[in-house]
Specification:
8 helices; Cyt_trans-like; transferase; Rossmann fold; Probable nicotinate-nucleotide adenylyltransferase; globular; binds adenosine-5'-triphosphate; binds nicotinate mononucleotide
């Protein structure tokens, strides 16, 4: 069965943390491909000043030469709010026999019960959660705890299955788009944080 990795994000801008997570899921779970899907109009946060197309172009540039990683512009092209449920439904319609394996970081997981049709979302594919510094699993809301207990399996190629949840084994990476934006605004060197540092610097877009 084809296994498609899905990694959505604002990617404002993309950083090495994102790329490492995409590589981890690809390699550990032997996924056929991992699609990085920049959001167009996010339902859950303010629209970033940097356009969806620009964030998409940087994602594309950042993964050149990365086997199996691809940039998918379906949310950038969408009119209206970009809900993950719509993206997974669309992807499943495009590839009816594929298993969708989607990834979020721990900060997203803690808020998942506020996402649009979130329980249905959990039934659409296998969810991977990546640990993140400063986001503990303690204090999880009861509905999320319950879903986690019911669906949790150890992540490996044999356990991948629709409706399951696993923790991805990934390094703890203290990098965020916020940090990249703040450093650029101060005129600092971000070449250790993102492969597209040249494009970011020359765009001047984060130099407020
Ligand atoms: N360092 C990281 N470790 C684990 N997960 C991460 C990391 N950076 C981003 N993610 C996850 O990647 C997804 C997309 O993240 P996003 O594009 O918002 O980047 P971000 O660094 O969280 O941005 P911002 O600082 O603007 O909130 C989210 O599910 C987020 O939890
Ligand atoms: O579908 C939703 O209701 C929903 C709510 C919050 C976030 N998301 C998606 O989660 C991904 C990560 O979001 P963010 O803000 O951490 O970049 C991104 O692809 C968003 O579109 C989706």
């Amino acid at each position: 069965m084809q296994k498609i990795g899905i990694f959505g994000g604002t990617f404002d801008p993309i950083h090495y943390g994102h790329i490492e997570l995409a590589r981890c899921m690809r390699d550990q779970l032997q996924l056929d491909e991992v699609r990085l899907i920049p959001t167009g109009l996010p339902p859950h946060r303010e629209m970033p000043p940097v356009s969806p197309q620009q964030r998409f172009d940087w994602v594309k540039a950042a993964i050149v030469g990365e086997t199996g990683l691809m940039a998918d512009d379906r949310e950038v092209r969408r009119n209206g709010y970009c809900y993950t449920i719509d993206t997974l439904i669309e992807l499943q319609q495009d590839t009816p026999d594929a298993l969708l394996v989607w990834l979020i970081g721990a900060d997203s997981w803690l808020n998942l019960n506020r996402w649009h049709r979130w329980r249905e979302l959990l039934d659409m594919g296998h969810l991977l959660i990546a640990a993140r510094p400063d986001y503990a699993f303690e204090g999880l809301s009861p509905d999320l705890s319950e879903e986690f207990a019911r669906r949790c399996v150890i992540a490996n190629t044999d356990t991948l299955s629709r409706g399951k949840i696993s923790l991805l084994s990934s390094p703890l990476m203290p990098v965020s788009s916020t940090l990249v934006r703040e450093m650029l605004a101060r005129g600092e060197d971000v070449s250790a944080l993102t492969p597209v540092w040249r494009q970011l610097e020359s765009s001047g877009l984060y130099r407020f």
